[in-house]
Design brief:
Length: 139
């Protein structure tokens, strides 16, 4: 099957925790991951966010309070996550989800570093930028 390596772990259960805004992935081998909606949203595999080549990615910002409204299965290899900001074009394959779970800390740190480096904010959606706002010096 395209898009799946033989050893890609397929989650035995996927649960949406709306209150804590987390997606829970459980695997038969006992692994489980809790992924924030925000994390899943900023790492969307959709073409519009990823661009069509390296360096064309659009950094997704201001997604701290995004919700996932529902999960739709796509064949037997992926799920589509429908987000409250209207974003629904990302197809999350099993290997991507497992990767996001396994490398959560590095990936999230890299995202925070990028946001810092570009002077952006997790609370302000720069794709619809408004003037003013806080300067973000919270300690």
């Amino acid at each position: 099957m395209a898009g799946i390596e033989r050893d890609t772990p397929i989650p035995s259960e996927i649960k949406l925790h709306q209150k804590s805004r987390r997606l829970e992935l459980s695997y038969d081998n006992g692994e489980s991951y809790m992924l924030d909606f925000e994390y899943l949203r900023v790492f969307t595999p959709s073409a519009e966010a990823r661009g069509h080549g390296p360096g064309q990615e659009t950094l997704q910002t201001g997604k701290r309070n995004v919700d996932i409204e529902r999960i739709e299965p796509v064949g037997s290899y992926a799920v589509r996550l429908v987000f409250s900001d209207g974003h629904d074009s990302g197809l999350y394959s099993w290997d991507l989800l497992h990767n996001l779970g396994k490398h959560h800390d590095e990936l999230w740190q890299e995202y925070l570093n990028q946001i810092d480096a570009q002077g952006l904010s997790r609370d302000i959606d720069t794709s619809s930028r408004q003037s003013g706002g806080s300067c973000g010096h919270h300690h």
